[in-house]
Amino acid sequence: MGSETNSEDKRLSIPNWDKGDRPRERMMAMGAKALSDAELVAILIRAGTPSRSALEVAREILAAAGNDLNALATSTPTELMKRPGVGEAKALSILAALELGQRRRATAPRERPRIATSAHVFEELRHKIADLHLEEFWMLMLDRGLRLIDSKRISIGGVHGTVADPKVIFRKALEAGASCIAVAHNHPSGQLRPSEEDIRLTKKLMEGGRFLDIIVQDHIIIAGENYYSFADNGQMS
User: Does residue 161 sit within a domain?
Assistant: First the structure.
């Protein structure tokens, strides 16, 4: 019986696998892009449990998130630590790696994008606010050719809302020399329907934009991987 248990442990332990099947060795030989999501997570957590290898634990972590890295990134350390074999250090390593990936995408050098549609606004801001547990309000400042000048966070609120002051929004737009702006905020609840306050704020921004000769292109609400556009729904006139 004891020999069978030892045999089982050897089979499950990554150091006893053929070198070509070990995630770290495969990454050294072939590069990170050759590895699956589970193999990359296995490298982060380094060790499994007596009955499951690091790769099996990694697969279980991903399966619990629907094999969706965006969903995994929204997990809290406490949620990850509920998985067998995942302690505080492993949970924090996984979330830190995912956050670094998001920051890398956000700061990568690139040509100033043209923000001409609601989809462009969404793509520019989704990585900043789509997965947050609190509401944040952001603005994009654009030149006459609709090229992005800068993006700014205007306010941070709670789970149920945040306050955006039109005076602050237009002051930042004027300081940046923007000819056009687009604004967005997230709904952590996942509800895409705009609130009455969202509608009132959009009307105030439209009025202020006309007075200052600044075009308010759109106001979008982001909830996860989906969004609602005031412009697409004919509410920006």
Answer: yes
